[in-house]
Amino acid sequence: MDSTIVSVAIPSIIEDLSLTTTQVQWVQEVYTLVFAALLMVWGVTSDRLGRRRLLIIGLILFVGSSVLCAFAPTGGWLIAARALQGVGGSMILPTTLALLNATFRGPERAIAFAVWGSTIGGMAAVGPVLGGWLTSSFSWEWAFWINLPFGLLVIAGLLFAVQESRQADARHFTDWVGALLSVLGFGSLVFGLIEGRAYGWWTATDDAPVTFGSISIIPVLFVAAAVLLTLLVVWENRRVKAGKTVLLDVTLFRIKSFANGNVTALTVSLGEFGIILSLPLWFQYVRDMDALHAGLSLLPLAIGSFLASGSVHSMSKHLSPIQMVRLGLTMEILGLMALAILLRPDSSGWVTGVPLLVYGMGVGFATAQLTQVILSDVPVEESGQASSTQSTSRQVGSALGIAILGTALFTTLRAGTESRLSEEIAANPQVGELVKGVSDSAGALIAELSANPATAAIAKAARAGLTQGVS
Fold first, then answer.
1. What is the CA radius of gyration of the chain?
2. Pick from 89, 223, 319, 422: most CB atoms within 10 A?
3. Residues 303 and 231 in one domain
């Protein structure tokens, strides 16, 4: 949720701190980059240090860095504080799952995972609403201050209501080579996915800061990630056979439910974060909504997710966890198909609301029981490793969603707009430059073009192009 809250506050932060375009990108992306790179390290650390202890440390670091973000006087300060937030967040996510897996059994575990899963899915959609309200009603700093009371409340609950949990025969962790390979490998992969459009997927863009001749740094990072992660698997497998401590027990992937579940987790995150990227742009630049109302328009997704979690307990009497995951994935597909078929530049709230509700229920069912499926056959003593692996799959999926669907969106936006204005572009090359500006601004230029009668036709074509890209 933190990333989606901050994304809504970005325009106010730009105005207040006079951020450059590069700083804007890093404020949004450094959190995700650090978060994804460190998940595996903290997962195995929690099994040894203690899951509750590491969760509390992560919360303290996350809350403290949120306060630093709120006090940020410059862009550099804010970026550094966001990086610290990523460190804290990477401690929090896998340890919450590991604690649930170690604490609950039987039907109670299914309910616990259902609540966790639907909360993860729903709060990603609630983030834009909360961020829009805090920014418009108070200031952008409150997008960070909001973490303070919630964080302190959770810490108090952990201290008084949750028992410590750790691996009983934990040995001193010595797999620092594996940790380094994991951080560099996943860091290179996620950075490449996030920055691919800005730096160029193959040929370097004009403003790319690092190039290899005409070649972008992005394919180099992808090759590096492939090599590093392959080395990680080989290294970890060798240590497992030698009976040494490992960052990732690769034998876990022999468990069918664990391996298949992680692939599904990646796929679910890919779709959800693609929607959370594209639909707010459509609401703001095609339907002329402000940030708050654009966030409110995503609420059906969150409502659907929470409704699904509330019905998991009763439905579990009739459906197995894997059947519920399949039901959720089917509902997600139906919701996306409905959006693709029905979406038009002048579509009403019902046209987006009903498919998003169906999609959100699918996310709720799939995510709620997916965790149960992934961890069901994993030994409790390896909960931290398994949980961090699932969390990493989700983060890679979200980065893939932003990269793949974002690229498809902006490519279709430009191509669709150009096809509608082919005659005008042929007669006046400046029209083509304006269309390029619409694409480069992710649609933000549409409102300015619409206000000028001389360029209103370009704005109309761009709205249709953006709608085509979203659908």
1. 23
2. 89
3. no
Judge if 332 and 394 occupy the same domain: yes
Per-residue pLDDT band at 304 (split at 50, 70, 90): confident
203 phi, psi to nearest 5 deg: -85, 130
Phi, psi dihedral angles at 215 (to 5 degrees): -85, 135
Question: Which amino acid, 366?
Answer: A
**CATH number of the domain to which 47 belongs:** 1.20.1250.20
Is residue 112 within 8 A of residue 404, CB to CB? The reply is no
Pairwise CA distance, residues 427 & 429, whole Å: 7
Are residues 258 and 322 both part of a single domain? Answer: yes
451 within a domain of the structure (yes/no): no
Q: For the segment 37-64, what is each residue's pLDDT rounded down to a tens digit?
A: 787 778 777 777 888 889 999 999 999 9
122 and 184 fall within a common domain: no
* Residue 60 and residue 87 in contact, taking contact as beta carbons nearer than 8 Å: no
Residue 340 and residue 329 in one domain: yes
| C-alpha span between 463 and 38 (Å, rounded) | 40
- What per-residue confidence (pLDDT) applies to 118? 64
In a domain, 153, yes or no: yes
The pLDDT assigned to 117 comes to 66
For residue 339, being part of any structural domain is answered with: yes
**pLDDT at position 247 over 60:** yes
CA distance 217 to 401: 20
pLDDT at 250 over 90: no
What's the average model confidence in pLDDT over 285-295? Answer: 79
CA distance between the termini of the chain: 24
Contacts of 57 (CB under 8 A, 6+ apart): 91
The confidence score (pLDDT) of residue 173 equals 60
Q: Which amino acid does the sequence have at 3?
A: S
Are 326 and 398 contained in the same domain? yes
Average of pLDDT values for 176-180? 84
Pairing outcome for strands 215-216 and 211-212: antiparallel
Give strand ranges (E) for 149-243. Answer: 211-212, 215-216
Distance CA 145, CA 426 (A): 52
Structural domain count of the chain? 2
State the average pLDDT for the chain: 81
Domain span at residue 266 reads 2-173+245-413
- Which residue, 218, 244, 270, sits at the end of a domain? 244
- Asked if 152 contacts 27 with a C-beta cutoff of 8 angstroms, the reply is no
The pLDDT of residue 459: 83
The CB density around residue 347, as the number of other CB atoms within 10 Å, is: 16
> d(Cα 299, Cα 276) in Å, to the nearest integer?
11
Do residue 258 and residue 231 come from a single domain?
Answer: no
CA distance 93 to 371: 13
Q: What are the tokens at 310?
A: 């509330």
438 assigned to some structural domain: no
Q: Is 289 left (phi over 0), alpha (psi -120 to 50) or beta?
A: beta
